[in-house]
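Final paragraph of the annual report: two paired records, presented back to back.
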Amino acid sequence: MKLFYLSMATLKKLAWRILLLTVIIIAAILLIPRGIRYIEVIAHRYHPIYAVETEEKVVALTFDISWGNAMAPKVLQILKDQQVTATFFLSGPWVETHAELAGQILADGHEIASHGHRHVNFSPLSKDQIIDNVMSAHNSIKNTLNVEPSLIRTPNGDFDDETILTIKELGYLAVDWMIDSLDWKNPGVDTIINRVLKRLQPGAIILMHASDSCKMTDAALPTIIKETRAAGYRFVKVSELLTLGPNDTKIR
């Protein structure tokens, strides 16, 4: 029988790797159900902003729009009735083709942010392609609304280190979310509501959509607003949220 011997140094390295793997697995079990995408973040030195560290009971309600003109007016009316201001991440082509509706979002006091130009994942793109995508949307929004956004949510929330660094070089901050309502899956109104309310915590950014492909957002939104307020929270725009606590995009 052939025996294999491992040095003490090798055994220590092996033990540390097993410990690290155990920590990652435990993090996945404990954190993923809260809607926090930390396992993805572990693979990167840089990441978007998901939330801020604060004890104040505030959350930021955000909406992505890339398609259609039917859902957005419904969402705007609910927000107006409930006196809630939100942050809207708008794609460049949508702003150009729905200039009046985009202008209404701005006129209602909501924050205008970018959702890029082409709705494609950024991580496979070259740096030049990322720049072209970001700046094409930037120019569309600026030329249509006379607003220069400084916040961007990449399509599908996709990113890698080069994406985050390139975005920062262009004067933007990348913003994702801590709470995904899953309204984009049309899973049922109660499911959308429960997804948000069960994951509320101070400083969280909530992801919802006002594109026409999302059929249930308007039905779920009033209850989400009502119950979030009943839990003692107030709604703020993302830019205000970022002033309330640490939110660095670099992992320390």
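The closing record of the year follows.
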Amino acid sequence: MRRLVLASRDTITLITNFTNAVKSCTSGGEPAMNNVTIGMDLGDKNSVVRVMNNAGVIVNNHTVDNTEKSIRTFFAKYKDATVALEAGTHSPWISRLLITIGCNVLVGNPRKLRVIWDSNDKCDGRDAEMLARIARFDPDLLYPVSHRGEAAQIDLELLQARDILVKNRSNLINHVRSSVKSLGCRLPSCSTESFHRQVVDDLPDEIRGTLEPVVQIIGQISTQIKEFDKQIEHICTEQYPETELLRGIKGVGPLTALAFILTLEDPTRFDKSRQVGCFLGLTPRRDQSGETDKQLRMLPPTRN
């Protein structure tokens, strides 16, 4: 025989309050932002956003412009929410902005998210939703990356700008030399830095009018590279004195030392020095199955 148990008024009140609390966490997601997961598919001009509540239901579909004002306006009501996005051109500054707003940001490694980019039904909305679902289920499946700080990114841009100028100067010098050789002539051997001064008088008359402007541009590039070198030396001395330790190694100059410091940025995140090599991609791939354990070649490192 079943017995009917009458609950007291206090018990009924407790159950009612608990039920309302659960509903507030799962209906719309907004009353409890720590239960909200947001997937954000970044585009060049705007980004697609999918807001998911604690029950795994999409409660908001939105497109936000990639401007600080638009992002702040939209995410102001989602403080403490978890936001998942993929690493890309806009992810460094957007992730930093979301952190200042108060969001918990996860930046996924796109090379590891095959479930997103290798799909027969790929679209921005689905990508955003998949990011939200993966982050809600297990954030480690995003293989999160940590972007460097804004100051380190700005200083690293100086090295990258210099690198681009050096590559373009080499291409222009090779173009001038090969053009002269195609007419049966040859330019004298000289250093890269003095090329624009040494060869200007040896250009064939037939193509002098065409190649002289190129040689002048090479001279301008060489001047700018020297200016960058002075800035790099100043930055090493004033902002990153720890580069002096690296420059004590034979063959290591300000460029290599500064690039190493800016790439690692925070050495305290590595428990052992051997982890630095893995972080830079200096570790072989592995393919182990059963009794087979293949040691494969290294892959080129990726930029974060």
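DSSP finds eleven helices and seven strands in the chain. This concludes the annual technical report; the extension proposal builds directly on these records.
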